[in-house]
Design a protein that fits this description.
By secondary structure, this protein is mainly alpha-helical. It has a two-stranded antiparallel ribbon. A two-stranded antiparallel sheet has the order 3-4. A two-stranded antiparallel ribbon has the order 5-6. It is globular and about 55 Å long.
């Protein structure tokens, strides 16, 4: 995300410098503070209006004009080869542009994707809030691979992330791991995942990744190898001499020069930041205090707690009426 933002930022500086003299300083000032936008799908689950139109009106260096909306779709230049997009991947390998809930011809249908998102809005909102408000342990909070002593698995940030990919994609690029990053909304989505993680980190500063065995491995890590906070995050370099980032050196946002509205992390200690961020979380996602939080998290981690063997069910009903 930081690397992508850096590229966008550099391009913005170049574009701002091409505006007419009377407007140039205004656009250069805006470009200096530019950061990737985030789509807060927990608050407003449907996709933002600016990503839903194929054409958008902008004030360009050459005046006001309509242009192809770069947030709507990405067109491949040129069409990837069969080696890059194997035919075995199905129709998606043949689409010339990215699509959300695509038609049989591969045309994006954002209206249908938004109906899917809207139908799941309450569940997404409540599950996201309860996850951040309740879960204080990094392992179950962060990923779908966590299981407790009973073999159960639970909601996680990765799970919420996956749900958005599936609802937006629905046969389109966001629904396929090798293709998802080509859809421009991928970056707005992942910026929000980063934001939710930053909120959780501020509330729970003492919980972070622990040593775990990577059963599947990566391009640079053999299956079965133990990884910890100091494992290199290839291929991401932190300097010009090739030093690689690790989880320990990429733990917080300040070294990258940004934060989020809910995480005002200057002039306060960790305890104050935790309290302030939790208050911001409640104000944003539970202003009326009507969404109950549960103590199930502690029961997952403490097998001597009452009702440890009880099964918990959570139901959501979404109704659409004319």
């Amino acid at each position: 995300m930081a690397l992508f933002e850096q590229i966008i930022w550099n391009n913005a500086q170049q574009i701002a410098a091409t505006y007419p003299t009377a407007q140039r300083s205004q656009y250069q000032a805006a470009a200096t503070t530019l950061r990737i936008l985030y789509w807060d799908w927990a608050l407003v689950t449907t996709m933002p209006d600016p990503v839903n139109s194929s054409i958008i009106c902008v004030n360009s260096p050459h005046g006001v004009m309509n242009i192809v909306n770069p947030l709507y779709t990405y067109t491949f230049h040129a069409q990837p080869s069969a080696a890059e997009f194997p035919p075995s991947d199905g129709p998606i390998a043949e689409y010339h542009s990215t699509g959300r809930y695509p038609s049989s011809s591969g045309q994006s249908q954002p209206g249908l994707a938004n109906l899917q998102l809207e139908a799941n809005a309450q569940a997404i909102h409540d599950a996201t809030y309860q996850l951040i408000a309740d879960q204080s342990n990094y392992a179950p909070f962060s990923n779908t691979g966590y299981t407790d002593g009973r073999g159960g698995s639970y909601n996680s940030l990765e799970n919420m992330h996956n749900a958005i990919h599936g609802l937006v994609g629905n046969g389109g690029h966001m629904g396929y791991i090798p293709y998802a990053g080509f859809d421009p909304i991928f970056w707005l989505h992942h910026a929000n995942v980063d934001r939710l993680f930053a909120i959780w980190q501020a509330i729970n500063p003492n919980s972070y990744t622990t040593a775990e065995v990577d059963a599947e491995g990566t391009f640079t890590t053999a299956p079965g190898q133990t990884e910890d906070v100091n494992t290199s995050l290839t291929p991401f370099h932190s300097d010009s001499v090739g030093t690689l980032y690790a989880s320990a050196t990429a733990r917080s946002t300040p070294p990258f020069g940004y934060t989020y509205p809910e995480v005002a992390d200057w002039g306060v200690n960790a305890t104050q930041l935790s309290s302030n961020t939790r208050a911001a979380l409640n104000t944003l996602y539970n202003p009326s205090g009507t969404i109950s939080t549960r103590s199930l998290i502690n029961k997952r981690d403490n097998h001597s707690a009452p009702y440890t063997n009880a099964t918990h069910y959570e139901y959501y009903v979404n109704l659409r009426v004319p």
